[in-house]
Amino acid sequence: MSIKIGIPRALLFHKYSTLWITFFEELGANVIVSEETNKRILNEGTNNSVDEACIPVKLFHGHVLSLKDKVDYIFIPRIVGLHKGEYICPKFSGLPEMIKYSLKDLPKIIDTEINFIKSIEKLNDTVQSIGRYVTNDNKKIMYAWEKAYENYKMDNLRLNEKFLDINLSNNKKIMVMGHPYNLYDRYMNMSAIDKIKSKGLNVVTPEMIDSVTINENSKKYKGKIFWAFARKLIGTTMYLIEKNNIDGVIYISSFGCGIDSVVGETVERIIRRESNIPYMLLTLDEHSGEAGVNTRLEAFIDMIKWREKDENNISAHG
Ligand code: SF4
Which residues form the DUF2229 domain (predicted)? Predict the structure, then answer.
C-alpha cells in the first residue's frame, strides 16, 4: 500500500501546491490535502496554538489537526529561505517545532530544512532528503522533482497569460496584493476576489506577473529588500506605477503580521508618493465580520467607478 502524505492547505501551499503534490505523487505516494478552510478548522487552529501566532499560522494548526488520523506523514518543511540573500518570515522556520509543541499524537512530520539563502546548490540534497521519505531510488526522486517543477512552471505561465488577457480588456482592473495565503484562502478573506469580480472588475494578483518582470522592477526600489515577500510585493508595486494601467490596489493583510507592517507600509508609501492610484488596506483576523468587509469593498469599488465619471481621475488620497 502506498504511503499517505498529508499536506495542510495553508500558508505556502497556496503558492507551491502543484509542486508539492506532483512531487509526492510522482514518487508513488498517496497525497491527501486537508479540506478547504472552514469554521471548524479555524476554531481548532486558534484553540490549539499560542496566542501570539498570526492568524495564518493558527489556521495552519487547524489544517494539521484535520489530517491527523488520515495520513502516515505530514509535510511541514522548515523553510528558512527560498532565494539567495533573502530571509522568509521566521515563523516558517519555527513551524515544525511550533506544531510538535502545540499538537500531540501527530503522525511523523517531514520537516526537512529548505534553506537557499546562501545558494541554490543545496537544492538537489534538499529534494533527495524529502524524497527519501517515500523511496530510496535517487533517480526516481530527481525525475519526480523535474516533473513537479515543470508543472509548477506551467501553472505560472498560465497565470502570466491570464494577465496578458486582462490587460487587453477594457474593464477596470484592481490589483489585490498580499501573501498568497491571504489572497487565495476564500474563507479567510471572505471571497474578496470573487466579490470584486462580481462587480464587473478584473482582478490581478502578484502571481500573475512573471518573476523576471518582478525582479527587474524590484531593483528600482532604492531601499534594501531583506524579505522574500517584500521583493515580490515591492517589485509588483514598481511595475504598476510604471505601467499605470491599474485602477486601484487592495492590500490584504493579517492582523499581527510583522512583515506586513513594514512591507504593507512601504507599498502604500510608494503608491501614494509616486502615483494617484487609489489604495486600500484590508486587515483581517478571526473576528473580522463579513458585513464590514463587504461595505469597505463596495465603497472602494464605487469610488473607483465614480472617480472616472466625475473627477477625471484626480488623486484619491490627497
Ligand atoms: S509573514 Fe506575517 S502572516 Fe505570514 S507567517 Fe509571518 S507573521 Fe504570519
Answer: 4-209
